Amino acid sequence: MARKFNFSAGPAMLPTAVIERAQRELPDWQGSGMSVMEMSHRGKEFMSIAERAERTLREIMAIPDHYKVLFLQGGASSQFAMVPLNLLGARTSADYLNTGMWSKKAIAEAKRFCQVNIAADTSEDGFTRVPSQEELSLNPDAAYVHYTPNETIGGVEFDYIPDTGDVPLVADMSSTILSRPIDVSRFGLIYAGAQKNIGPAGLTIVIVREDLLGRCAEMAPTMFNYQVHADSGSMYNTPPTYSWYMAGLVFEWIKEQGGLSAIAEVNRRKAEKLYAAIDRSSLYANPVDKNARSWMNVPFTLADPALDAAFLQGAAERGLLTLKGHRSVGGMRASIYNAMPEEGVDALIAYMEDFERSH
Ligand SMILES: *Cc1c(COP(=O)(O)O)cnc(C)c1O
After folding, report:
1. Per-residue pLDDT tens for 248-291?
2. Contact predicate 126/99, CB 8 Å
């Protein structure tokens, strides 16, 4: 087996140990005589897989008991609509922090359902920083405050959790969930598409404080109602069973690594050494304020974009894949989620230094 280092922003690398375990269990899951893909979601085998995944996630994230964990479909993009549909209740406006491409998409969707107050906006700085707490103009009557702790495209990450007083804080954690310990009790709702740091695409995780349930708009489709999913253990309809199972294997892998604080140590080290390599070179540059640099997505440009193609080709020859930056930003982007081993980052840095010497 020749696994290469895949720097894709998503779907992204999964831990090799997880892939191998899934391979072993693929044709016959623990003596059941069938693959997890072939099981009824209501059978006792899958029920045990589902419960174990949730239990392990609750343990590694220390999720308090008064939060529900939902295993949904539709991606983070469906949450852009589900959040306003479920959390507005009798209120008519919500606060949004505009810090990059994903915030913008969340804002555009929310505008279909409510009045959106832009409580902070860093677009004039090209989305290269995070707004400070003092900069936030929060409306005390807002139904909630929405932000994107890690902007996957710009590589911009909050280094603090905004204080929103009594107004529930909602976070699109798609590209930073499980990268470090977080205090879940600071949030009203957390959502994340699985394909970055959780597992395969097709699964979306929502962690929601129980008191925020039960206020869904009447007109909302049944499938868009959190309460329906909470009441049915995320089995109102057929859930994405295989992705749920794979997510459970990833949660167990995280636990085996020593949990989120151990994972965070490795992530911090990986990011620090990559940014240090960029900063000490005269070929590569990253535009993001130092305090706002993402641990997970590291965009960088080459001083001469004419070298981009040669850089990508040479990288691929060394088994360093999917480094091309997002079309809106150009240049390169190295996504270094939990499953990217430190050796992958070391190999990338060594390649970048060689390339700079020879160009
Ligand atoms: C990837 C991503 C999304 C989109 O997720 P889908 O599951 O494709 O809908 C939304 N927000 C952030 C921060 C992302 O990284």
Report:
1. 999 999 999 999 999 999 999 999 999 999 999 999 999 999 99
2. no
The CATH number covering residue 347 comes to 3.90.1150.10
- Out of 78, 151, 174, give the residue to mutate to test ligand 1, the one with the largest number of ligand atoms within 8 Å of its CB: 174
**Residues 126-133, mean pLDDT to the nearest whole number:** 97
What is the domain-level CATH number for residue 173? 3.40.640.10
Retrieve residue 280's tokens: 């000490």
Catalytic residues: 102, 172, 196
Ligand 1 contacts CB of residue 294 (under 6 A): no
Triad 222, 187, 11: Cα angle to 5°: 65
In-domain check, residue 8 = no
Please give the distance, rounded to the nearest whole angstrom, from the Cα atom of residue 297 to the centre of ligand 1.
Answer: 13
In which domain, by residue range, is 178 found?
A: 17-256
- Based on the domain organization, do 216 and 277 belong to the same domain? no
pLDDT at 41: 97
- Report the run of H or E that residue 298 belongs to, with start and end: strand 297-302
In the sheet that holds 332-335, the strands lie side by side as 284-285, 297-302, 332-335
Ligand 1 lined by 77 (C-beta under 6 Å): yes
The rounded mean pLDDT for the chain is: 97
Distance of CA 27 from the midpoint of ligand 1 (Å):
31
Q: Which atom of ligand 1 is nearest to the CA of 148?
A: 13
